[in-house]
Structures are given as structure tokens and as C-alpha cells.
């Protein structure tokens, strides 16, 4: 397993599990608590989620859960390709409002570890994309929140024209980051890097 920090948001980690190949294909151990701990990552994941986006150009996000139900996410793509987006939403952070974009695919096997204090979303680049992610806290509707995918102050350049993107009504109504006045995050835990 190779773990590296993201260039734009160093708290976001790129995780590349080893793949063992032979004539049949490959095998990869995508999560091993001991290996993660040895790499300086110590989170207890309590829930696994999977989603499928039927059409390319589907956007989900930018989502997060507010404290005390904040979530760390370990995200990977099982089928197709996605552009995975992470935005720093920690007031006082020198990178507040900055984002990173990483292509995750079934072929490249990359995963992203997204700490609490960051909004997360993705855009499907192919039809039939399946995403799988582990979270460190159960879904809590009272803490469910998000930031507008098209917030001009964040300035994400989506891979399809904005008017052709497919979003839920809920995601289309998310507020701009400047209108999220109750963002308070505890000190980061679980990263010993």
C-alpha cells in the first residue's frame, strides 16, 4: 500500500493498495486496519456505503456531516471512472474554500481518505459508475449538510457543461460556502502523519 498526501490539500490522502496479478486477473486488499495504522492512519470505520450513477455527468455532493457526527471517508470506484472532489470547509484553515480533484476508477484502484472538515462530492465520467466508501460515523440526518456544487468562490470546473449535469433537487439547493455560518470542527484525530 502506498499512501501520499494530496498536493492541493495535504490532509487528504491518496491510498493505492497493492495489486497481485496473475493469469486470472488481480487481487487487492483494499482495507487492512493494521496496514493503515502502520501508515499513520487510525480511524474506526462503522458503515460502508455504495452508490451507482447510471449516466455520465451525474454529480453527487458536495456533502459532509457536521459535528458531533462528522465523518472521515475512504472512497473508491468499483466500476467506471469518477472525478472525486474534496473542498476544505474548515474556517481558519489556510486552504479554506480550496479544492482538489482526483480521478478514481476501477482500473487505477486509487482511493481517497477524506478527513472530517472537508466536503466531498463526485461526478461520474462514464455511464454505470459504482462508488464504495467507508465512513467513521453513522449517517445522522440532523447533521447532514452540504455546499453548492457550483459555488463560484470555490470555482470547480466540472468535466461536463454545468447545465447538462444531473443532480438531485436536494443537491441543487445546497448553499454557497459563505452562507454556511455554523462550521466548527474539532481538532483532527486519527492521522499520525
TrEMBL record:
Which NCBIfam families does the record cross-reference, listed alphabetically?
rmlC (TIGR01221)
List the residue(s) that the UniProt entry marks as the site Participates in a stacking interaction with the thymidine ring of dTDP-4-oxo-6-deoxyglucose. Answer: 139
Active site (record annotation): 63, 133
The record's section on Gene3D superfamilies has: Jelly Rolls
Q: What is its EC number?
A: 5.1.3.13
Its GO biological process terms? Answer: dTDP-rhamnose biosynthetic process; polysaccharide biosynthetic process
Alphabetized InterPro entries for the sequence = RmlC-like, RmlC-like_jellyroll, RmlC_Cupin_sf
Give this protein's Gene Ontology molecular function annotations: dTDP-4-dehydrorhamnose 3,5-epimerase activity
The pathway this protein participates in, as annotated, is: Carbohydrate biosynthesis; dTDP-L-rhamnose biosynthesis
GO cellular component terms, semicolon-separated: cytosol
The question of whether Nucleus is a record keyword is answered with no
Top-rank taxon: Bacteria
Protein name as catalogued: dTDP-4-dehydrorhamnose 3,5-epimerase
Reactions that this protein is recorded to catalyse: dTDP-4-dehydro-6-deoxy-alpha-D-glucose = dTDP-4-dehydro-beta-L-rhamnose
Keyword check for Isomerase, yes or no: yes
The UniProt family comment states: Belongs to the dTDP-4-dehydrorhamnose 3,5-epimerase family.
Keyword terms, alphabetized: Isomerase
Assembly information from the UniProt record:
Homodimer.
What does this gene product do?
Answer: Catalyzes the epimerization of the C3' and C5'positions of dTDP-6-deoxy-D-xylo-4-hexulose, forming dTDP-6-deoxy-L-lyxo-4-hexulose.
Amino acid at each position: 500500500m502506498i499512501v501520499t498526501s494530496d498536493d492541493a490539500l495535504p490532509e487528504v490522502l491518496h491510498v493505492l493498495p497493492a495489486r497481485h496479478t496473475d493469469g486470472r486477473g488481480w487481487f487487492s486488499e483494499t482495507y487492512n486496519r493494521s496496514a493503515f495504522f502502520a501508515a499513520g492512519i487510525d480511524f474506526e470505520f462503522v458503515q460502508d456505503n455504495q452508490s451507482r450513477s447510471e449516466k455520465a455527468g451525474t454529480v453527487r455532493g458536495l456533502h459532509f456531516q457536521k459535528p458531533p457526527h462528522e465523518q472521515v471517508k475512504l472512497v473508491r470506484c468499483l466500476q467506471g471512472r469518477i472525478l472525486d472532489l474534496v473542498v476544505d470547509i474548515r474556517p481558519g484553515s489556510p486552504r479554506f474554500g480550496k479544492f482538489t480533484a482526483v480521478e478514481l476508477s476501477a482500473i487505477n484502484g486509487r482511493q481517497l481518505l477524506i478527513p472530517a472538515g472537508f466536503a466531498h462530492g463526485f461526478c461520474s465520467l462514464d455511464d454505470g459508475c459504482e462508488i464504495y466508501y467507508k465512513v467513521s460515523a453513522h449517517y445522522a440526518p440532523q447533521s447532514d449538510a452540504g455546499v453548492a456544487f457550483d459555488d463560484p468562490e470555490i470555482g470547480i470546473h466540472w468535466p461536463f457543461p454545468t447545465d447538462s449535469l444531473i443532480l438531485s433537487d436536494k443537491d441543487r439547493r445546497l448553499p454557497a460556502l459563505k452562507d454556511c455560518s455554523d462550521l466548527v470542527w474539532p481538532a483532527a484525530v486519527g492521522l499520525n502523519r
